[in-house]
Amino acid sequence: MVQKLDYLRETPSQTAGPYVHIGLAPGAAGFDIYDQEMGWDIAGPNAKGERIRVEGLVIDGTGSPVKDVMLEAWQADSQGRYVDPKNPDATEEGFCGWGRVITNFETGEWGFDTVKPGSVPGRNGSTQAPHINLWVVARGINIGLNTRLYFDDETAANADDPVLNVVEWENRRATLLAKRTERDGKIVYRFDINLQGENETVFFDI
Amino acid sequence: MTDQGEFFQRDREWHPPAFTPDYKTSVARSPRNALISLENTQSEITGPTFGHNAFGTHDNDLLLNYAQAGESPIGERIILHGRVLDENCRPVPNTLVEIWQANAGGRYRHKKDTYLAPIDPNFGGCGRTLTDENGYYFFRTVKPGAYPWRNLVNNWRPAHIHVSVFGTAFAQRLITQCYFEGDPLVDKCPIVKTIPSQEGRDSLGAALDMNASVPLDSLAYKFDIVLRGRRSTLFENRMEGN
Ligand SMILES: [Fe+3]
């Protein structure tokens, strides 16, 4: 006999299902119910740093785009600072750092506008390369998938990044790199997420 | 500084695995490689917070938030309420809880839902609220109907409400579904059965709560939500956690 550990157990996850958009992005799903929706503006108007767009597809094991995904992003500002509710003045006014998007129901394309984050502190005095934390849910995904988007033009920072270096298979690290391109004078990073298959994206247990 | 510590490891055997062939859609959407385990950094232990000013008065009242003036949706009126706690039994205050659901006939207001049950003109099917300082939340709504779905030919989803919660860090982000006490469809559902243990499945059942019901108005169901707990790091070189 031993004493009982009085911890509660985390509520088990369930799939977000095909209609996640109604609940979490009703405007995009086609009906107006809230005066103000959440998560459509990550950086706000005042944030310093390079304005970028991030775009991609989520691709399933058959090679088809997944068209009912919801993605959430969490990132630091261009100085590498996460929004801290205890110290709201540390980041620019209106910078939220968090966003959510849904895929286009016909094409599966998703995208959001933001500023490129700076390097952020890692564990034990290390430095993490600029990255955006992503969380992916959809019908058929039983528990949200965590991954990170790194930038392919940050070669030196990426080489020293403690998290990328945890990925033992160097070829798989490439699945975390977004490709920098330019379109109509705008910087666009392409980041496709492969749920399965040869180029399966690295997902993390955080 | 209870919101600075790292998190208890998530028990992946308690949650559904990614690959659950009886829930067919998971087959092509489940990663096959092992997840890479990360020790928490700032990126995981921080997360978004939300202010009251983003909310409308009726955002947590699905009986009113889409109804025409003087009308209300059809169905059994219920209160869904409970607390958001963490694994340390501490309430999680001021955190965003969002829900979505089918109407009383089992139909979603979504262009991809073609079930033959009718749309209810007075029911939108989504709501949101912040927990109060004690981690408490409530919604008013109608009890959703069961609906058929394409998996096996004759699979029906039990009545359920989808629930999304944030906590204080990106590592706590969670989406789940709440079921209702006494529903015989729960034990037959391939999505419910993605959860490995009976104890885990039972933890998603909202209990009929007569004490919180409103006589001559609404029944009540209680649904507590538990998010990952933070570690005390008293025995490490950084004094964080509680
Ligand atoms: Fe559903």
TrEMBL record, chain A:
Which InterPro entries would you find in this protein's record?
Answer: Intradiol_dOase_C, Intradiol_dOase_core, Intradiol_RC_Dioxygenase, Protocat_dOase_a
Stated family:
Belongs to the intradiol ring-cleavage dioxygenase family.
- GO MF term list: ferric iron binding; protocatechuate 3,4-dioxygenase activity
Annotated ranges, domain Intradiol ring-cleavage dioxygenases: 46-197
The protein depicted here goes by the name: Protocatechuate 3,4-dioxygenase alpha chain
Q: Which organism is it from?
A: Pelagimonas phthalicica
Q: Which Gene3D superfamilies match?
A: Aromatic compound dioxygenase
Has the keyword Oxidoreductase been applied to this entry? Answer: yes
Q: Which Pfam families match?
A: Dioxygenase_C
* Keyword Oxidoreductase among record annotations: yes
Give the Enzyme Commission number.
1.13.11.3
The domain of life is Bacteria
Keyword annotations of the record? Dioxygenase, Oxidoreductase
Q: What's the top EC group for this one? A: oxidoreductase
Q: Which NCBIfam families match?
A: protocat_alph
From TrEMBL, chain B:
EC main group: oxidoreductase
Q: Give the InterPro entries listed for this entry.
A: Intradiol_dOase_C, Intradiol_dOase_core, Intradiol_RC_Dioxygenase, PCDO_beta_N, Protocat_dOase_b
**Domain named Protocatechuate 3,4-dioxygenase beta subunit N-terminal: residues:** 8-41
> Could you tell me the EC number(s) of this protein?
1.13.11.3
What residue spans carry the region label Disordered?
1-26
Give start and end of each Intradiol ring-cleavage dioxygenases domain: 45-229
Write down the Gene3D superfamilies for this protein, in alphabetical order. Answer: Aromatic compound dioxygenase
Q: Which GO terms describe its molecular function?
A: ferric iron binding; protocatechuate 3,4-dioxygenase activity
Which Pfam families does the entry mention? Dioxygenase_C, PCDO_beta_N
> Highest taxon of the source?
Bacteria
- Print the keywords alphabetically: Dioxygenase, Oxidoreductase
Checking SUPFAM superfamilies in the record gives: Aromatic compound dioxygenase
**PANTHER family on file:** DIOXYGENASE, PUTATIVE (AFU_ORTHOLOGUE AFUA_2G02910)-RELATED, INTRADIOL RING-CLEAVAGE DIOXYGENASES DOMAIN-CONTAINING PROTEIN
Q: Give the family, as the similarity comment puts it.
A: Belongs to the intradiol ring-cleavage dioxygenase family.
Q: Spell out the protein name for this chain.
A: Protocatechuate 3,4-dioxygenase beta chain
Query: Which species is listed as the source?
Result: Pelagimonas phthalicica
